[in-house]
Amino acid sequence: MHVAIPLYPRFTALDVVGPYTVLAFAPGWTVTLVAAQAGPVTDDQGSLTLTATASYADVGRPDLIVVPGGPGTLEAMSDEALLAWIRQTHEHTRWTTSVCSGSLLLGAAGLLEGLEATSHWAVLDMLRQAGAEPVSERVVTQGKIVTAAGVSAGIDMALTLLGQATDVATAQAVQLAIEYDPQPPFHAGSPKSAPEGTSERALKLIV
Fold first, then answer.
1. Where in the numbering of this chain does the DJ-1/PfpI domain appear (predicted)?
2. Which of these, 51, 70, 91, 117, could form a disulfide with 11 (CB 3.0-4.6 Å)?
3. Cβ count near 162 (within 10 Å)
4. How much is the pLDDT for 159?
5. What is the Rg, in whole angstroms, of the alpha carbon atoms belonging to the chain?
6. Roughly how many angstroms between the first and final C-alpha of the chain, as a whole number?
7. Mean pLDDT, residues 86-107
8. Taking a C-beta distance cutoff of 8 angstroms, is the pair 150, 17 a contact?
9. So what's the pLDDT on residue 207?
């Protein structure tokens, strides 16, 4: 299985690194970071740079793509080179996926019309602009299009896909290898459970 993850300015690092870590651990799987041109791309914090080792033109038929989100998503929605690559690879993928606001890019590419999809809670309703039905769930599967909620949900999605593509035992082994056993110290990971006022504070961190 060949996985391609596109990078664009101001992506959120965990949207990329979470799925990358899960899928790169899988025996026989390769993961390629791609961008308009091979080279460094800086994340939303401005202090972490990942290197795309291939351009869009170099990677045309991956088995799986994972489109990350981040503050740079809104600008990337008008990046026709990226959107064209998403459309073209989607014709041949086994799965076309997104993490966080990356689903807005799937929508901008015209892939979500009439489908249920999820995203980061702060932009979930924006999916309606692409003709999608927003769903507040951790992972949403609609045929070969799979969308994950905000940031950390990309790990859940990657493990889900790994279990389907290989077997549950392999996915479980990878989960244990990365010791993914969430036990958060606070019950504040959703707007529904977070204390009053937390959503407003969180929005200031991600805008």
1. 2-162
2. 70
3. 25
4. 98
5. 16
6. 35
7. 98
8. no
9. 72
| Nearest CA among 109, 112, 118, 104 for reference residue 160 | 118
Backbone angles phi, psi at 80, to 5 degrees: -65, -30
User: Could you count the other beta carbons within 10 Å of the beta carbon of residue 76?
Assistant: 25
List of residues 6+ apart from 53 with CB closer than 8 A:
32, 33, 34, 38
Q: 43: exposed, middle or buried (C-beta count within 10 Å: 0-12, 13-18, 19+)? A: buried
The H or E element containing residue 154 is helix 153-165
Give the catalytic positions in this structure.
100
Of 130, 100, 102, the residue nearest 114 (C-alpha) = 130
198 token code pair: 């937390």
| Mean pLDDT on 2-29 | 97
In 91-149, alpha helices (H): 102-108
The DSSP output letter for 185 is S
Q: At what angle do helices 13-25 and 168-177 cross, to 10 degrees?
A: 120
- List of residues 6+ apart from 94 with CB closer than 8 A: 1, 63, 64, 144, 165
pTM score: 0.97
- The continuous run of DSSP H or E covering 52 comes out as strand 49-52
φ/ψ of 39, rounded to 5, equals 145, -175
Query: Can you tell me the mean pLDDT for 95-113?
Result: 98
Residue indicated by tokens 């949207």: 15
- Going by CATH, does the domain composed of 2-179 fall within 3.40.50.880? yes
Share of the chain above pLDDT 90, in %: 99
- Euclidean distance between CA atoms 69 and 49, whole angstroms: 15
